[in-house]
Fold this protein.
Amino acid sequence: MNKISRLEIYQNNIRLLEPFTISLGTVDTITAILVRVHDSEGNTGWGEASPTPFVLGDTPGSVTSAIELIAPMLFGEDPTRIERIHMLMDAAIYGNTSAKAAIDIAIHDLVGKICGQPLGRLLGGCKDKIETDASIGIKDPEGMAEEAAKRVKEGFKVIKVKVGIDPQEDLRRIEVIRKRIGEEVRIRIDANQGWTTRQTIDVLTKMEQYNIELVEQPVKGHDISGLGFVRRSTSIPVMADESVHGPGDALHVVKSDAVDYINIKLMKSGGIRKALKIAAIAEAADMECLVGQMVEMNIATTAAAHFATAVGNIYSTDLDSSLFREDDPVVEGGVRIEGGYLILAHEPGLGINVNEKLLGKPTRVYTP
Ligand SMILES: [Mg+2]
C-alpha cells in the first residue's frame, strides 16, 4: 500500500508583465506556495496555493502555518483515500482553503501518477478541451479596448472585462470595448463586489444593449438577497464568485434562487474534491458553472483545467493567468492556451515537471 511519507513546502515568486487591477486592488507579483507530497513507493505529487489576502484572507505565512498543522495528520495515510484526507484536514484547521487546495492538488497529482492516468480522466473525463476567456484589468476605456482587440486577434472568443470602481466609467468601458471588438465576441463582466444593488440595476439596464453574456459578483459576497434582487431586475444573467467559497455556500445561493451561474475556484473551495461537490449541487439545480482562478502559476492552473474538462456542467473557464506573467521556468509542461482553448497533455497526474535546480531548496520539510 502507498503511504504518505514526506511533505515539502517551497516558495516561488514571479512578476506580472504589468500590474493587474480589479475593484478590490492591484496585484504585481505572484507569491505561490508550492507543496510536494511523497509516498512510500517513491511517487511524488505537486500542489500550489495562491494566497489572496483581499478574497481569501490568507498570506504566504498563514498558508505555511496551516500546512504545518495539517502535515503531521497525513503521514501513513493512503493517498488514494482523498475523502478521508479532507476529513483530516478539516479536523486539523478551519478554513484556510488555499492551503488545503495545495495539498489536495498535490495528492490528486500523486494519485494520477499511481494510476498512470491524466487527472482529468480520473475525475470523469467529460471533454478533451475547454475554452477560456481573456481578462482585461481596469484602466482607461481606450487602453482596455486596445487590449481586448489584441486578445481577439490571438483567438479568444470571450473577453472578461473587469469593472466595479465607478458605474458611469464602467458603462463607458463596455461601450468602447463593444464598438472596438464587434458583435461576434462574447463579453462577460466582473465587478468583484464593487457596486451597490441600486448601482448594479441602474448600470446593467444601460448595458443590456451591449449584449453582455453575464455579470459576475456585482454586489458584496455576503449579500445573497442583493444578488437575487439583481437577478430578478435585469435580463443579464448573474454569476456568484466571492459569494460561493465552499459547497455550503453553493447550496445557499441555489436555495435562494439568487444566481444563474457559479464561478468555482480551487483556492476558494479547498481543492478539487470540494469543487466536485459544488459542481454536483449546481447540477442538481440544473445550473452550469464556470471555473476561475486567482492570479496563479501553472500547477494550480493545470489542476483547475483538468477539473474543468472532467465535469459535465462546467461550460467555460477563466483560466488565463499565464497571459499576465512572465513564463515560469520552474514549472514545465501542464496546460497551455491555443486559440482561446485550454490544451492538456495526455500524461499521468497533472502532467507537469518541476525544475528543482531553479526552484531551490524547500523552505520547510515535514517527515514522521
Ligand atoms: Mg470574479
Q: What stands out?
A: Residues 4-116 form a domain with the Enolase-like; domain 1 fold (CATH 3.30.390.10). The CA atoms of residues 62 and 90 lie 16 Å apart. The chain has a mean pLDDT of 97.
